[in-house]
Amino acid sequence: MRRLVSCVLFLSSLALTTTGCATYTQDLDRARSHYEANRFEQALALFRVLEHDTDSFSLPEQAQYAYLRGMTDYRLADLAPQGTGVADPRKGYRDNARHWLGLAAAIEKQTPGGISSEQKNRLTETLADLNRDVYGGAETLPESDAAPGGASQPAAPAAPADAAEPPAPTL
What is the torsional sign of CA 59, 117, 26, 15? Predict the structure, then answer.
């Protein structure tokens, strides 16, 4: 009798676990459909609920989640009003978009197959745009170390590793 009860409890917990994973996938699919229908607020709400359970996804699903979450934040940044200082929702969305899209790129690089080639192209272009917020226009400079006037700047000499620190000034 005890063995039968143990088996029933085990099977019911196994069924609940399997159903839970399917629910996460269904929620991801529902969030994707909101994103594709340009209902970005609803999509973001679902993504935020799913965020704590992303470890339940397979790696391709994690890449999809991160890609869609980042693109949702990116799209919302275009719709958000420009704020000032700390209260700038546009900057917050763009920061979040850069985080999630960077994560999607890293997952896709490690385990390819979660993101389509069209999505990879969009990911690359969007990350380049978002990186300009952080790094400025430096990525558009040529490979050479040419100065703005065309003259080459010499490299600063490196300090020897064993050089002693100069003495502190006395008062």
Answer: negative
